[in-house]
Structure formats: structure tokens, C-alpha cells
Design goal:
Length: 314
Amino acid sequence: MSTAAYEDAYQRLIEPHRRELHAHCYRMLGSVQDAEDALQEALLRAWKAFDRFEGRAQPKTWLYRIATNTCLDVLARRKGKRELPIDRGPDEPPLTEIAYLEPYPDDPDASYEQRESLELAFIAALQHLPANQRAVLILREALNFSAKEAAEILDTTPASVNSAMQRARAAIDEKLPTQSQQATLQQLGDGEIKAIVERYVAAWNRGDVDAVVEMLAQDATFSMPPAAQWFRGHDAIRTFLPTGPLSIPRIFVPTRANGQPAFGTYKLIDGVWERNAIHVITLDERGAIVDAVAFLNPDLFPFFGLDENAWTSD
């Protein structure tokens, strides 16, 4: 086979799965940037092994075996787990810029089930599982592989997969809300969600603390990873906002992350609007915001198709 034919055959095998492989790496690693690196490493491994593939396995199974094992290698080298400030105990050290969970850009073509498996609460819960249990749960529930297929991917037995699945499901159920965010958003409807987003943007853009707090559930949480500090409830958040995010002008630009409403936020510094955070909200069935997480990492903006450059204020 010529080099051109080899490359063409490889691309035809890879491309239908590339986007979901990236999402798989994100579920495993909790970081869109780590997912990007892991996917590139996995595709390099696939390229090097492609001449030995020869169709002896299903392409999807073969690719997920490579991607999953690449992620497991990353996790074996990683110290600690990616999480959110509200998930950390009071005696644990503060998060660093390389140790917190990251949001993931929404895929407008993703199915309901795919978005459900990328929700912030689900991804945060996954990060608390041992690596092998995390892989099993993702392969079985998010990707619908059979126990036999998952065992082939992980080089183990179906019995071991089923055992790991039971332990993982029991552990993760303790950390998940009773209703998924996708079910809540579907219940609210597109019109109500659009109105909530518009009100939230307007409140932040005019620096209206009371209007922001009015949109929160009574026990809402607000955090800003990698900062360790976080706040719960109207009083705590109302006290914090004027001394924190709303101490200087900010503008919110709507986007979507993890299948949820999100915003790219910019702050005004010396007359220039600088990239600040990817701000993700979680809603309850009444449309109140139960959780707001501002991921303070300007490097995430390109993944969300947001303006990479600051602009000057008029």
C-alpha cells in the first residue's frame, strides 16, 4: 500500500470517531486540554499500529481500546484528581491551575444521552472513581459497550467488568442529583432557558448584585476554581460579589458547556476587556440557579470559539 493510500485508509477509519473520542478522553481526564493531548497521543498510537489492525476488530472497539489505555497512562502519571472546590475537604490543600476540573464545549449535534454523560455533575463525580472503575462506567453507560466489549478494551474479563461496574455505580450515585440537568432543561423548555440566560447576562453586565442573587436558589453555590474559596446561599454570595467579581466591570457572552448554559466572561482592566472565565450554571426545575462555577482560565476560550483577543473599551 502506498503512503497516500495508507494515510487515506487511516483517516477514513479515524474521522467518524474523532469527536466522540475527544469527549471520551475528557470524561476520563476531566480536562479539555488534557483530552486534547491524550487524543493526539492516542491517534499517534493508532497510526503506528494501523498496519497491524487489518480489520481483525471492530474499528470503534480498536480505537476506544487505544484511547482508553492512553488516558489510563495519563491518570497513572497524574498526582491527585481533578475536582471542584466544593468537593474538597476543609483540610485539603488549595487547588492549583493544573488540578481542577475544566468545562467542556457543547456539541450542538450531540444526542440527549451524550450531553447527559458530559454534564458537570457527572464529570465531577467520575473524577472520584478509581481509574479502572471510571473507564468501565464510561464504556458501559456513556458509550453503551457490552460487558464483553469493555473487557476486550480493558484486557480483562466480563466478570471483572461487571464487578467494577457495580462498585462504580454505587459510588457515583451518592454524588449525583436526583434529576439530570438535561431532564431539567428539557422540562424548562428552550424559551424559558433563553429568558433566564438573557436576565443573567443583563444582571451581570450592569453589575446588579441584587438581580444576580435574585436568580439563585436559596442554597445555591458559587465557586471560582482554582480558587479554593466557595460560597453557599444568598447572604454569603451577596456579601462576596461586590468585593469579588462585581468589584470591577464585567461582561458576559453566552455560550454552552457540558450541555448547560454557560458564558465567556470578560473583565475591564485599564480600559481593556480581558478574558476572565468560562462561567457555567446549573438550574433547578423552577429555573433557579443552584450552582455557578466560574472557571478562571483564559486559555479555555479558544475551545469555546470565543474571542481570543481582548478589545479596548469605548
